[in-house]
């Protein structure tokens, strides 16, 4: 079969990799100048590696385990736990699972009561066991609610939710209000409890690069936005890209949700969450391999979280130099200069002995499709009602690296299974 994949993000690449491995002729059309979609790494003129937005890779992701060679990615781990920066005070909140002593009453932290810590351990045991059984967010079986309601229901105090859960999971969901589906929380918690939080030594872009290395030479077309799907009667029979028509037995649309809706006319999830990621050269020290977090407060903090990436992988910065990423959840209507200045104001309180030199600002309004409670029951199927047309992309699963790769895998399976019935 000849299969065209539209989009070379993790979903499209996983799909094309699987189809190529089964001997099908695969063509991938990508609008931009490189693979990876939302997971790309830029090389700054001074030699820093800048991911396009702060991202991490959970080694426990089930779909990623099936498709990636972790050894070749040379994964470098963050320390478990986090550092909470509250009004000039710094509190290390360790992970009670990996450091059981931190759950003892003698080490009671300000941010978490003993009940909170014991609840965390209970959740880690429960959800860790669940995590070993579920492959994705949609397989988490609970009456869906918001993460915040779920945490209250599980007995956590307002204090730990505001000081830890809101900035930590808010930084992952890009939603400090924690209105994101509790299914996403449960799945993410399970991934954290059963694996490591990492980045590839040479940046997140190594993940799509590894997937793309499985494609046959000449099958990937960069700078080739698909303008239109070709239809014959009720069937999709190819694409138009760069003014040229390309025919295929099947077309898999693996773009972001809004573009997929535009190209196919299918109903796809609406809404998005975003971030502004700011990079600074760091002279001095920040939080080492732990992430820094800003608790909920009035006024809300400028940055939600920071990471000293050069402490996690020294290859992110030229030798002897430091790289700090800082994330504002949401968008900002400020000039780059003002973003840097406001950022340094906060960072100087967090790290009074360090200096910061602005490197880059990434404004990313579409990081993940919005995931309110119940959304995962309404995500579109990979097999559409139109013969020859298939969907991949995080929006068919859940907004994560795992969701995107799983969607690509399922779309490839759907293509291979429907081939004989359709023709
Ligand atoms: C800043 C940020 C932080 C994140 N943090 C995490 C994290 O820590 N952990 C995690 O698991 N997930 C995280 N995510 C989410 C994760 O990166 C995404 O869910 C995933 O990468 C989506 O992959 P995708 O293939 O579905 O879509 P995309 O990566 O968006 O790929 C779609 C591709 O289609 C291309 N395209 C669009 N239109 C056309 C067209 N007409 N013709 C041809 N090509 C087209 C685009 O250029 C793009 O390359 C984060 C995302 C961002 C942006």
Looking at this protein, list some descriptive labels:
FAD/NAD-bd_sf; Flavin containing amine oxidoreductase; 12 helices; 423 residues; FAD/NAD(P)-binding domain; Polyamine Oxidase, Chain A, domain 2; globular; oxidoreductase; alpha/beta
Describe this structure in words.
This protein is α/β, with parallel strands linked by helices and 423 residues long. The chain folds into 3 domains: 2-39 and 205-270 and 372-422, FAD/NAD(P)-binding domain; 41-77 and 198-203 and 272-369, Alpha-Beta Complex (Polyamine Oxidase, Chain A, domain 2), CATH 3.90.660; 95-195. Helix content is 31%, strand content 25%. It is built from 12 helices and 20 strands. The chain has a 7-stranded mixed sheet with strand order 8-7-16-17-18-15-19, sandwiched between helices. The protein has a 5-stranded parallel sheet with strand order 10-2-1-14-20, with helices on both faces. Helix 1 packs parallel to helix 8 (206-212), helix 1 (10-21) packs across helix 12 and helix 4 crosses helix 7. The chain is globular and about 65 Å long. Mean pLDDT is 93; it is low at 103-108. It is an enzyme of class 1 (oxidoreductase). It comes from Rubrobacter radiotolerans. This is Flavin containing amine oxidoreductase. GO terms for molecular function: oxidoreductase activity.
The amount of beta strand, in percent, is 15-25%
How many strands, what sense, and barrel or not for the largest sheet?
Answer: 7 strands, mixed
Radius of gyration (Å): 22 Å
User: What name does the CATH topology of the largest domain carry?
Assistant: FAD/NAD(P)-binding domain
Highest-level CATH class of the largest domain: Alpha Beta
Low-pLDDT windows of residues: 103-108
Query: Got a strand count?
Result: 20
């Amino acid at each position: 079969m000849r299969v065209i994949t539209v989009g070379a993000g993790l979903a499209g690449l996983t799909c094309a990799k699987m189809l190529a491995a089964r001997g099908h002729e695969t063509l991938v059309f990508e609008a931009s100048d490189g693979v990876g979609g939302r997971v790309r790494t830029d090389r700054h003129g001074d030699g820093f590696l800048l991911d396009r937005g702060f991202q991490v890779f959970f080694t426990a992701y089930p779909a990623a385990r099936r498709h990636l060679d972790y050894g070749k990615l040379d994964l470098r781990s963050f320390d478990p736990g986090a550092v909470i920066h509250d009004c000039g005070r710094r509190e290390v909140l360790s992970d009670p699972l990996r450091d059981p002593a931190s759950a003892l009453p003698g080490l009671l932290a300000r941010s978490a009561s003993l009940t909170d810590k014991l609840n965390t351990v209970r959740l880690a045991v429960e959800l860790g066991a669940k995590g070993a059984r579920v492959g994705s967010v949609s397989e988490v079986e609970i009456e869906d609610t918001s993460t915040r309601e779920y945490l209250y229901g599980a007995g956590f105090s307002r204090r730990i939710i505001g000081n830890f859960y809101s900035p930590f999971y808010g930084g992952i969901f890009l939603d400090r209000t924690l209105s994101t589906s509790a299914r996403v929380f449960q799945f993410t918690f399970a991934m954290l409890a059963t694996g490591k939080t990492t980045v590839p030594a040479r940046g997140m872009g190594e993940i799509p690069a590894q997937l793309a290395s499985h494609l046959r030479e000449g099958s990937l077309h960069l700078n080739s936005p698909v303008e239109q799907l070709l239809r014959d009667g009720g069937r999709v029979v190819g694409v138009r890209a760069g003014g040229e028509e390309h025919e295929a037995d099947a077309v898999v649309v693996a773009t972001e949700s809004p573009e997929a809706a535009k190209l196919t006319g299918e109903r796809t999830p609406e809404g998005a969450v975003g971030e502004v990621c700011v990079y600074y050269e760091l002279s001095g020290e920040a939080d080492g391999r732990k992430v820094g977090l800003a608790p909920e407060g009035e006024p809300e903090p400028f940055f939600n979280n920071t990471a000293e990436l050069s402490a996690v992988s020294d290859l992110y910065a030229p030798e002897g130099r430091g790289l700090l990423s800082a994330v504002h959840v949401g968008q900002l209507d400020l000039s780059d200069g003002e973003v840097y200045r406001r950022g340094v104001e906060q960072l100087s309180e967090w790290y009074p002995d360090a200096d910061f030199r602005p490197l880059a600002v990434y404004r990313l309004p579409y990081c993940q499709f919005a995931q309110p409670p119940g959304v995962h029951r309404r995500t579109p199927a990979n097999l559409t009602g139109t013969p020859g047309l298939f969907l991949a992309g995080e929006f068919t699963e859940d907004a994560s690296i795992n969701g995107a790769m799983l969607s690509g895998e399922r779309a490839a399976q759907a293509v291979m299974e429907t081939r004989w019935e359709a023709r």
